[in-house]
Amino acid sequence: RGTPRKAGTHWTEPGCQSCTCQGGQVLCDIVSCSVPCSHPLPAPAGGCCPTCMGCLHEGVARAEGDVFSPSDGNCTVCVCLAGNVSCLSPECPPGSCPSPSSADCCSCNPEKCNFRGRMYAHGARFSLDGDDCTTCVCQGGEVECSFTPCPTLDCPQHQRHLGPGQCCSTCRDPPAPAGCFLDDNGVEFPVGQIWSPGDPCELCICQADGSVSCQRTDCVETCPYPIRIPGQCCPDCSAGCTYMGRIFSNNETFPSALDPCLSCICLVR
Protein backbone atom coordinates (compact mmCIF):
# COMPACT_ATOMS: atom_id res chain seq x y z
CA ARG A 1 0.00 0.00 0.00
CA GLY A 2 2.91 2.35 -0.82
CA THR A 3 4.67 1.98 2.54
CA PRO A 4 7.91 -0.06 2.81
CA ARG A 5 8.06 -2.61 5.63
CA LYS A 6 11.15 -4.34 6.94
CA ALA A 7 11.31 -8.10 7.07
CA GLY A 8 9.85 -9.45 10.32
CA THR A 9 7.87 -6.26 11.00
CA HIS A 10 4.40 -6.68 12.62
CA TRP A 11 1.61 -4.09 12.38
CA THR A 12 -2.20 -3.85 12.52
CA GLU A 13 -4.33 -2.84 9.55
CA PRO A 14 -7.86 -1.33 9.78
CA GLY A 15 -10.50 -3.96 10.44
CA CYS A 16 -8.37 -5.56 13.18
CA GLN A 17 -6.05 -7.44 10.83
CA SER A 18 -2.58 -8.39 12.10
CA CYS A 19 -0.01 -8.28 9.29
CA THR A 20 3.63 -9.46 9.02
CA CYS A 21 6.35 -8.81 6.40
CA GLN A 22 7.95 -12.18 5.70
CA GLY A 23 10.18 -13.07 2.75
CA GLY A 24 8.98 -10.14 0.66
CA GLN A 25 5.33 -11.00 1.23
CA VAL A 26 2.69 -9.50 3.51
CA LEU A 27 0.75 -12.07 5.52
CA CYS A 28 -2.42 -10.84 7.30
CA ASP A 29 -4.91 -12.52 9.63
CA ILE A 30 -7.75 -11.42 11.91
CA VAL A 31 -6.49 -10.33 15.32
CA SER A 32 -7.14 -13.08 17.89
CA CYS A 33 -8.13 -11.66 21.27
CA SER A 34 -7.47 -13.49 24.51
CA VAL A 35 -9.75 -12.10 27.23
CA PRO A 36 -8.76 -13.44 30.67
CA CYS A 37 -11.65 -11.81 32.58
CA SER A 38 -15.40 -12.35 32.94
CA HIS A 39 -16.68 -8.76 32.43
CA PRO A 40 -14.29 -6.96 30.05
CA LEU A 41 -14.93 -3.46 28.77
CA PRO A 42 -15.45 -3.01 24.99
CA ALA A 43 -12.36 -2.28 22.96
CA PRO A 44 -11.32 1.39 23.19
CA ALA A 45 -11.42 3.62 20.14
CA GLY A 46 -8.88 2.37 17.61
CA GLY A 47 -8.39 -0.91 19.47
CA CYS A 48 -9.42 -4.43 18.53
CA CYS A 49 -9.60 -6.38 21.77
CA PRO A 50 -11.71 -5.82 24.92
CA THR A 51 -9.80 -4.62 27.94
CA CYS A 52 -9.82 -5.94 31.48
CA MET A 53 -8.94 -2.53 32.94
CA GLY A 54 -12.51 -2.13 34.22
CA CYS A 55 -15.78 -4.08 34.09
CA LEU A 56 -19.00 -4.06 32.08
CA HIS A 57 -21.85 -5.25 34.35
CA GLU A 58 -25.57 -5.13 33.37
CA GLY A 59 -24.70 -2.70 30.57
CA VAL A 60 -22.92 -0.26 32.93
CA ALA A 61 -19.16 0.39 32.72
CA ARG A 62 -17.42 0.12 36.09
CA ALA A 63 -13.91 1.38 36.87
CA GLU A 64 -11.23 -0.83 38.38
CA GLY A 65 -11.92 -1.24 42.09
CA ASP A 66 -15.42 0.18 41.86
CA VAL A 67 -17.81 -1.14 44.57
CA PHE A 68 -21.54 -1.18 43.68
CA SER A 69 -24.87 -2.94 44.26
CA PRO A 70 -26.83 -4.58 41.41
CA SER A 71 -30.31 -3.27 40.63
CA ASP A 72 -32.03 -6.36 42.12
CA GLY A 73 -29.33 -7.44 44.54
CA ASN A 74 -31.27 -6.80 47.80
CA CYS A 75 -28.20 -5.62 49.78
CA THR A 76 -25.75 -7.63 47.64
CA VAL A 77 -22.38 -5.82 47.19
CA CYS A 78 -20.21 -6.26 44.08
CA VAL A 79 -16.66 -5.15 43.25
CA CYS A 80 -14.79 -4.81 39.93
CA LEU A 81 -11.29 -6.32 40.00
CA ALA A 82 -9.22 -6.84 36.82
CA GLY A 83 -12.30 -7.17 34.64
CA ASN A 84 -13.98 -9.65 36.97
CA VAL A 85 -17.10 -8.90 39.01
CA SER A 86 -17.40 -10.56 42.41
CA CYS A 87 -20.58 -10.22 44.46
CA LEU A 88 -21.20 -10.96 48.13
CA SER A 89 -24.52 -11.27 49.97
CA PRO A 90 -24.80 -10.74 53.73
CA GLU A 91 -25.10 -13.81 55.88
CA CYS A 92 -28.16 -13.64 58.11
CA PRO A 93 -28.89 -15.78 61.15
CA PRO A 94 -32.11 -17.82 61.05
CA GLY A 95 -35.07 -16.33 62.83
CA SER A 96 -38.65 -15.21 62.59
CA CYS A 97 -40.01 -11.80 61.63
CA PRO A 98 -43.67 -11.13 62.43
CA SER A 99 -43.47 -7.85 60.46
CA PRO A 100 -40.98 -8.32 57.62
CA SER A 101 -39.60 -5.07 56.22
CA SER A 102 -38.48 -4.63 52.63
CA ALA A 103 -35.68 -2.36 53.90
CA ASP A 104 -34.03 -5.21 55.83
CA CYS A 105 -31.18 -6.95 54.05
CA CYS A 106 -31.62 -10.26 55.76
CA SER A 107 -34.32 -12.63 54.71
CA CYS A 108 -36.49 -14.13 57.40
CA ASN A 109 -38.84 -16.97 58.09
CA PRO A 110 -42.27 -15.48 58.92
CA GLU A 111 -44.15 -17.07 61.76
CA LYS A 112 -46.78 -19.71 61.07
CA CYS A 113 -50.36 -19.29 62.24
CA ASN A 114 -52.14 -21.53 64.72
CA PHE A 115 -55.83 -21.03 64.04
CA ARG A 116 -58.60 -23.21 65.48
CA GLY A 117 -56.21 -26.10 66.07
CA ARG A 118 -54.60 -25.99 62.63
CA MET A 119 -51.22 -24.65 61.49
CA TYR A 120 -51.01 -22.46 58.40
CA ALA A 121 -47.87 -21.24 56.62
CA HIS A 122 -47.21 -17.55 56.17
CA GLY A 123 -49.21 -16.25 53.20
CA ALA A 124 -51.61 -19.21 53.15
CA ARG A 125 -55.24 -18.41 52.26
CA PHE A 126 -58.11 -20.57 53.49
CA SER A 127 -61.84 -20.52 54.23
CA LEU A 128 -63.55 -21.19 57.53
CA ASP A 129 -65.24 -24.54 57.97
CA GLY A 130 -68.79 -24.33 56.65
CA ASP A 131 -68.35 -20.71 55.58
CA ASP A 132 -67.08 -20.40 52.03
CA CYS A 133 -68.01 -16.71 52.01
CA THR A 134 -65.14 -15.77 54.36
CA THR A 135 -61.51 -15.83 53.23
CA CYS A 136 -58.66 -15.84 55.76
CA VAL A 137 -54.92 -15.25 55.29
CA CYS A 138 -51.95 -15.97 57.56
CA GLN A 139 -49.68 -12.93 57.95
CA GLY A 140 -46.67 -13.24 60.25
CA GLY A 141 -48.40 -15.37 62.86
CA GLU A 142 -51.70 -13.47 62.72
CA VAL A 143 -54.87 -14.52 60.88
CA GLU A 144 -56.94 -11.90 59.11
CA CYS A 145 -60.39 -12.83 57.78
CA SER A 146 -62.66 -10.91 55.43
CA PHE A 147 -65.76 -11.52 53.34
CA THR A 148 -65.20 -12.78 49.82
CA PRO A 149 -65.45 -9.76 47.46
CA CYS A 150 -68.40 -9.91 45.09
CA PRO A 151 -68.45 -8.63 41.50
CA THR A 152 -70.36 -5.49 40.60
CA LEU A 153 -73.78 -6.31 39.12
CA ASP A 154 -75.24 -4.30 36.27
CA CYS A 155 -78.89 -5.12 37.02
CA PRO A 156 -81.34 -3.20 39.26
CA GLN A 157 -81.85 -4.23 42.88
CA HIS A 158 -85.19 -5.98 42.29
CA GLN A 159 -83.58 -8.35 39.74
CA ARG A 160 -80.80 -9.53 42.11
CA HIS A 161 -81.02 -12.94 43.76
CA LEU A 162 -78.98 -14.73 46.44
CA GLY A 163 -79.34 -18.48 46.06
CA PRO A 164 -78.81 -21.12 48.76
CA GLY A 165 -75.11 -21.64 49.52
CA GLN A 166 -74.07 -18.66 47.41
CA CYS A 167 -71.87 -15.86 48.73
CA CYS A 168 -72.71 -13.26 46.11
CA SER A 169 -75.95 -12.21 44.49
CA THR A 170 -76.58 -12.83 40.81
CA CYS A 171 -78.87 -11.17 38.31
CA ARG A 172 -82.16 -12.85 37.54
CA ASP A 173 -83.15 -13.28 33.93
CA PRO A 174 -85.30 -10.33 32.87
CA PRO A 175 -89.02 -11.13 32.50
CA ALA A 176 -90.25 -12.16 29.08
CA PRO A 177 -91.51 -9.18 27.07
CA ALA A 178 -95.30 -8.73 27.07
CA GLY A 179 -95.28 -7.10 23.68
CA CYS A 180 -93.36 -4.97 21.23
CA PHE A 181 -92.56 -1.36 22.11
CA LEU A 182 -91.84 0.97 19.20
CA ASP A 183 -89.64 3.87 20.18
CA ASP A 184 -90.44 5.99 17.15
CA ASN A 185 -94.10 6.56 18.01
CA GLY A 186 -94.40 5.14 21.52
CA VAL A 187 -96.98 2.47 20.62
CA GLU A 188 -96.81 -0.96 22.27
CA PHE A 189 -98.35 -3.90 20.42
CA PRO A 190 -99.23 -7.21 22.11
CA VAL A 191 -97.62 -10.45 20.96
CA GLY A 192 -99.27 -11.64 17.72
CA GLN A 193 -100.55 -8.16 16.76
CA ILE A 194 -100.37 -7.47 12.99
CA TRP A 195 -100.25 -3.91 11.68
CA SER A 196 -99.01 -1.77 8.80
CA PRO A 197 -96.29 0.77 9.68
CA GLY A 198 -97.60 3.29 7.12
CA ASP A 199 -96.89 1.51 3.85
CA PRO A 200 -100.00 -0.52 2.83
CA CYS A 201 -97.74 -3.01 1.08
CA GLU A 202 -95.82 -3.83 4.33
CA LEU A 203 -97.21 -5.84 7.24
CA CYS A 204 -95.51 -6.32 10.62
CA ILE A 205 -96.13 -8.80 13.45
CA CYS A 206 -95.06 -8.69 17.10
CA GLN A 207 -93.02 -11.83 17.90
CA ALA A 208 -93.08 -13.68 21.24
CA ASP A 209 -89.55 -12.48 22.13
CA GLY A 210 -90.52 -8.83 21.77
CA SER A 211 -89.02 -8.39 18.31
CA VAL A 212 -90.85 -7.05 15.27
CA SER A 213 -90.85 -8.95 11.97
CA CYS A 214 -92.02 -7.17 8.81
CA GLN A 215 -92.66 -8.44 5.28
CA ARG A 216 -93.76 -6.75 2.06
CA THR A 217 -96.77 -7.93 0.04
CA ASP A 218 -96.16 -9.04 -3.56
CA CYS A 219 -98.95 -8.07 -5.97
CA VAL A 220 -99.66 -10.97 -8.35
CA GLU A 221 -102.75 -9.76 -10.25
CA THR A 222 -101.95 -7.20 -12.94
CA CYS A 223 -103.92 -5.50 -15.73
CA PRO A 224 -103.25 -2.57 -18.08
CA TYR A 225 -105.74 -0.13 -16.48
CA PRO A 226 -106.28 -1.10 -12.83
CA ILE A 227 -108.05 1.01 -10.24
CA ARG A 228 -105.81 2.08 -7.34
CA ILE A 229 -107.80 2.41 -4.13
CA PRO A 230 -106.23 4.68 -1.43
CA GLY A 231 -104.93 2.67 1.53
CA GLN A 232 -104.92 -0.56 -0.50
CA CYS A 233 -101.59 -2.13 -1.47
CA CYS A 234 -102.33 -3.91 -4.75
CA PRO A 235 -104.27 -2.38 -7.67
CA ASP A 236 -107.82 -3.70 -8.22
CA CYS A 237 -108.50 -5.15 -11.66
CA SER A 238 -112.06 -6.32 -10.89
CA ALA A 239 -113.59 -3.02 -9.80
CA GLY A 240 -113.31 -1.31 -13.18
CA CYS A 241 -110.79 0.59 -15.27
CA THR A 242 -108.76 3.77 -14.92
CA TYR A 243 -108.32 5.50 -18.28
CA MET A 244 -106.90 8.97 -18.88
CA GLY A 245 -107.50 9.91 -15.25
CA ARG A 246 -111.13 8.73 -15.19
CA ILE A 247 -112.64 5.61 -13.58
CA PHE A 248 -115.06 3.46 -15.58
CA SER A 249 -117.07 0.51 -14.29
CA ASN A 250 -117.02 -2.99 -15.82
CA ASN A 251 -118.67 -3.28 -19.28
CA GLU A 252 -119.02 0.52 -19.48
CA THR A 253 -118.58 1.99 -22.99
CA PHE A 254 -117.00 5.41 -23.51
CA PRO A 255 -115.44 7.43 -26.36
CA SER A 256 -111.69 7.50 -26.71
CA ALA A 257 -110.05 10.69 -25.47
CA LEU A 258 -107.54 10.50 -28.29
CA ASP A 259 -109.87 9.78 -31.23
CA PRO A 260 -113.63 10.67 -31.04
CA CYS A 261 -114.32 8.11 -33.79
CA LEU A 262 -113.15 5.28 -31.49
CA SER A 263 -115.37 3.70 -28.85
CA CYS A 264 -113.81 1.95 -25.81
CA ILE A 265 -115.20 -0.55 -23.30
CA CYS A 266 -113.95 -1.58 -19.84
CA LEU A 267 -113.66 -5.38 -19.60
CA VAL A 268 -112.50 -7.62 -16.77
CA ARG A 269 -109.56 -9.77 -17.95
From TrEMBL:
InterPro entries, sorted: vWF_C/EGF_Fibrillin (IPR052080), VWF_dom (IPR001007)
Compartmental location: Secreted
Signal peptide range in chain numbering: none
Alphabetized UniProt keyword annotations: Glycoprotein, Secreted, Signal
GO annotation, biological process: cellular response to virus
Organism phylogeny: Eukaryota, Metazoa, Chordata, Craniata, Vertebrata
Protein name: VWCE protein
Top-level taxon of origin: Eukaryota
GO cellular component annotations of the record: cytoplasm; extracellular region
Keyword Signal attributed: yes
Pfam families assigned to the protein according to its UniProt record, in alphabetical order: VWC, VWC2L_2nd
Domain VWFC, first and last residues per copy: 1-53, 53-114, 111-172, 178-238
